Amino acid sequence: MPLHPQCKTFLDMLAASGGRPLHEMSPVEARTMAMPPELGGPEQPVHQVENKRVPGDGGLIAVRVYRPSAASPLPALIYFHGGGFVLGGLEMVDRPCRALANASGCAVISVDYRLAPEHPFPAAADDAFAVTQHVAEHAADFGVDPTLIAVGGDSAGGNLATVVALRARDAGGPPLAFQLLVYPLVDFTDQDSGSLREYDEGHFLTRPVMDYFADHYLPRGVDRRQAWVSPLHAKVAGLPPAFILTAECDPLRDQGEAYAERLRQAGVQTTLKRYDGMIHPFFGLGGIIDGAREANADAAAALKTALTR
User: Fold this and answer.
1) Range of 285's domain?
2) With b meaning 16 or more CB within 10 Å and e meaning fewer, what string describes 121-154?
3) Is 112 helix (H, G, I), strand (E, B) or coil?
4) In DSSP terms, which residues pair with 48 in a beta bridge?
5) What is the pLDDT along the chain (309 residues), one digit of tens a residue?
6) Degrees to nearest 5, angle at CA 94 with 90 and 95
7) Are 12 and 297 in contact (CB under 8 A)?
8) Contact 113, 102 (CB under 8 A)
9) For the domain that residue 198 is a member of, what is the CATH number?
10) Fewer Cβ within 10 Å of end Cβ, the chain: N or C?
């Protein structure tokens, strides 16, 4: 299927705005180029939104907790934002997290993990795991059920969710019930997949931008095939069930779909859905792209099914 017209309009809008390509900016400059929040859709009211801090090896980690109701305990989704490990934060995913909380009935805990290059690998992965451990061990403080915790994220955040699931399995906990992976980056060694060749320019996420993020996140000498970097190369048996969403016109499409197949082959219950005509950041563009609202609804429905006793 060709590029969806709404995605083309978004790409044309970005092109018309001018400015240097992201990969030619410093990370500090790039962080000033956040997209308008209204592109994520309306700011839905949520029963309670609370900013908290939890301890990590690198200091306190900011999290934002979205509670869709006064019920307690609620199932929970711990969510890691995208941005190539270099960009993003709580505001970047505020509107999608609100929508997910309301539609799924789950508490959503958004994590402001440390960013590279100031904090290279494994800082983000360590923060992601530390928050997950803390929420599970202090579930009553968050009003959540420690047996009904999911991890999820988009792009780089999908990578962190997979890494948390691997670490939790290998450490004997915390027990996780589900993974929600939105066009996850799961293979830093991918240089020649079909989707990378076809969509590596002109579709938002380009090869130079991917290299820019990888070079900032991964210190020289890090093995890019190791499990906590590229989960596609990990042993995945024993992981929690997963819903993986991919975008047709995304260079990361093939690796996300390959990861779904790896999970299935290992006996992990996995649902995969590809969204035709969509581009890499579409999940967070519910204000302008119909496919984003469909994907948000699908994600919420998957969470509700997986986390309902």
Assistant:
1) 5-16+23-306
2) bbbbbbbbbbbbbbbbeebeebbbbbebbbbbbb
3) strand
4) 67
5) 689 999 999 999 999 988 788 999 999 999 998 889 999 999 999 999 999 999 999 999 999 999 999 999 999 999 999 999 999 999 999 999 999 999 999 999 999 999 999 999 999 999 999 999 999 999 999 999 999 999 999 999 999 999 999 999 999 999 999 999 999 999 999 988 999 999 999 999 999 999 999 999 999 999 999 999 999 999 999 999 999 999 999 999 999 999 999 999 999 999 999 999 999 999 999 999 999 999 999 999 999 999 987
6) 165
7) no
8) no
9) 3.40.50.1820
10) C
Pairing of strands 144-154, 107-112: unpaired
Residue 280 bears catalytic tag: yes
Total count of domains within the chain: 1
Structure tokens at 81: 């934002």
For residue 119, what are its two tokens? Answer: 């904090």
- CA–CA gap between residue 116 and residue 18 (Å, rounded): 25
User: Is the torsion defined by CA of 169, 235, 114, 123 positive or negative?
Assistant: positive
Active site residue 250: yes
94, 127, 187, 250: which is the annotated catalytic residue? 250
Active site residue 192: no
Catalytic residue among 110, 155, 195, 230: 155
Omega before residue 117 within 30° of 0, cis: yes
